[in-house]
Amino acid sequence: MRIFKSVRAQSCVSAALWTAAVAIACESTTPDMVAVVDQKAKNVPAAPSAGKGVQFVGPKLTIAAGEEKMLCWVPDWTPDKDYFIRKFRGFQGSMGHHVVALQDKAGNYKPGETFDCSSLAQMVNLQPLVLPDPDSHSDKALLQEGYAVRMLKGARPVFQSHYVNYGSKPIEIQDVARIDYALEANPVEVSYFILNDGLIDIAAKGETTRSMTCKAPSDIKILATMGHMHEMGTKMKIEQLRPADASFAAKTMYNVAQWKPEFRDAGPVEIFGVGNTALDLKAGDEIKVTCTWNNTAGKQLFFPKEMCSTVSYYFPATKEGLIICNKE
Per-residue DSSP letters for 126-155? Predict the structure, then answer.
């Protein structure tokens, strides 16, 4: 999977949209289809000082009335060395759904380029960079001191801005993305363990449950795990399995017995921590995710209208870095 959605809710919620829990600002409708509403990023802090981080102001982009769009933008900056990153935060206008930090390791995109990245096919050249700390754990950072993700020299950052313009006028957006570096000399490198069921097929009415597994290629430790579904999700469970050991009882890593529509924007996060509190995965262990939906839409749902995905931070990062299992 290349699309990440660990995001935060803003303003009020409109249950009338298919994006039931998307973060929106309640705007009155008007017949004026020409005027553009400014959705410039709000509450942007001062940029970090040199050597402590970097802050990017995105291009001005337009989202048509009634349109949901994910647009990617590439800042005019290419790292001149490897950087270890501790924290990321995106800033948007009130109709913003999320800003995601990705990276282009192969030079597929040019500095200053913008492109539509609403579909999985448009995201295949990108990998995750760093997840934002969820608001629900603001006192407990995902990446604690001494741990960081690596951005390689020459790899370009790419930011995905997701907006839902529920109004009757086009909106002009301009987002801001902030990256803070890890300042210690030799942090433990963290990477991602991802499962994504890209073949979900949810019946038009009633309940559907699906599961998938992914095997750990070596001994690793899980720092934090989060799940992701959309508004039709009802429950989600993530387990650790050890097929090579018949005496090993499945261990629940993450369990949301009642998934809520607003979890699309700010899903629960299970933070295990570091050292002895981290979750040990042995080579050959499997992570299993099980998702259940109750489809009230009256038609079949497929990826990415609905999702069943998990993202875990693991350490120490293997030579390959990203561990990903994707049904496609």
Answer: -EEEEPPPPGGGTTS-SS-TTEEEEE-TTP
